Structure formats: C-alpha cells, structure tokens
Amino acid sequence: MPNPKRRHSQKRTSTRRAHDALSKHSLSECPNCHEKKMPHRACAKCGYYKGREVVEVEEAS
Amino acid sequence: MRHKVAGWKLGRNTAHRRSLLRNLVTSLIVEERIETTIPKAKAMRPHVEKMITLGKRGDLAARRLAASYLMTDESVVKLFDTIAPRFGDRNGGYLRIVRTAWQKGDGAEKAFVELLGSEKVLDEKREKRAEARAKRVAEAKKAMEEAEAQAQTQAAPEAAEKQEEEK
Questions:
Q1: What is the pLDDT of residues B3-29, one digit of tens each?
Q2: For residue A23, which phi and psi values (nearest 5 degrees)?
Q3: Å between A31 CA and nearest CA of chain B
Q4: Torsion of CA B127, B74, B96, B52, to 10 degrees
C-alpha cells in the first residue's frame, strides 16, 4: 500500500484550509419589525412577509 | 435534449409519489393553505394548477377527471363551486409559496403553500383559532383560580398548619 513519505507540516495543513472559510449569510431587514431576517422568507420574529402576516408566531409567555 | 427537466422524485416510488401528490393537492383545495417542504410544494404546483384548469372548464367530463384525481368528493365540489370561479381571469400562477423556517430534525426548508385570493378565508380561520385559544386560556385560568379558592377554603386550617411546619 502507498504511504506518505514525509511528515505533513502544520503550515501545509493551514495553508490548504486558508480558502475553506464559510461566508456569512447576507441578511435583510424586516420592514415590519426591523429585525434581521433571511431574504425571500417570512420573518422569523414577527411572521410577516410582503406586508401581510403569513405565519403565526407564538409569544413566549 | 430534455436534460434537467425530470421534475421531483421525492425519494418515493411512482405509486407512493402519486398518492402523496394527490393527498397534498386535496388538502390544499380543502384547507386553502398547507405547510410542507419546498420540494413537495414545488412538485405539487403543476398538479394543483391542472385541477384548477379542470375546475374552470366546469363540464361533467372535467368534473369526472377531477374526481378521479382528488381524494374526496367534498374537495371536488369545493374546487368547482368556490375555487375555480376565483381564477376566472388568470392563466396559471394560482399558488403562493412562502418560505418560512427550517424543519427540526433534518433541516429541510419549509414553506406555506396557499391559493391566491384565499387571504380572506385564511384570516377568518386565523381569527377563529385566536378566539378559541383565548377561550381556552380564560377557561384554564378560571379553573385554576376556582381550584385554588376551593383548596384554600377546604383545607384552610390544615394548610396553615402545614405552612407553619414548613417554615
């Protein structure tokens, strides 16, 4: 079976992973409650989408 | 070449998929709004639109075709009498799919599918649900208060003693 000939340095590993970072989601602002929300989705905080309540959000009591 | 137009298999065999889609379409017609996953919502869309087109035709043959696809007679009646007339001047695009959150467990993206023009019905339904909820809460509160009052009057001496002992 083939085996590695040389030790793999930490630098080599970290250099390879330099491009592996995840990017942040771009968020838009909910026009109803001004919370950050995912674009093209109903707001998770107030349940509004395009000016109308779409989902009922349960308030923590 | 008709590459990439196969549609959705939804991880089911043909019979299972057909059943699922028929159930989804029937539910949507009866309820006007259902919650499901994005791929199911997209897969059911053409089937719903075909049913509404049948509803707009409105003749006996169309009614029989619809009845052979939809699961309940009630849904056929509703499709032909109340839903199809709503879309008289619209050629397709009868559905609205609103993405909501992700499903717990498998992380599937969920969405509400609703028929256009059903806002009034849905708002009425929502109001009814809110009323029922308020009623339930009020009843529960009342019951709790009554139980508390009863417990206090019935076991007032004992409870007082117990409380003192605990202290």
A1: 988 889 999 999 999 999 999 999 999
A2: -95, 155
A3: 16
A4: -150
CA–CA separation, B61 vs B15, rounded Å?
24
Say yes or no: B112 contacts chain A, CB-CB below 8 A: yes
Compute CA distances B94 → B16, B51, B116, B117, whole Å: 25, 11, 6, 9
pLDDT at B166 over 70: no
Sign (positive/negative) of CA torsion B81, B85, B91, B95?
negative
B81 touches chain A (CB under 8 A): no
Q: State the greatest distance between any 2 C-alpha atoms of chain A, in Å, as a whole number.
A: 64
Is the Cβ pair A55, B100 closer than 8 Å? yes
Q: Are B113 and B97 in contact (CB under 8 A)?
A: yes
**Residues of A whose CB is below 8 A from B126:** 53, 56
* pLDDT, position A57: 63
User: B94-116, pLDDT tens digit by residue?
Assistant: 999 999 889 999 999 999 999 98
CA-to-CA distance for B112 and B24, rounded, in angstroms? 12
Structure tokens belonging to residue B154: 């019935």
Question: B119 to chain A, minimum CA–CA distance in Å?
Answer: 10
pLDDT tops 90 at residue A59 = no
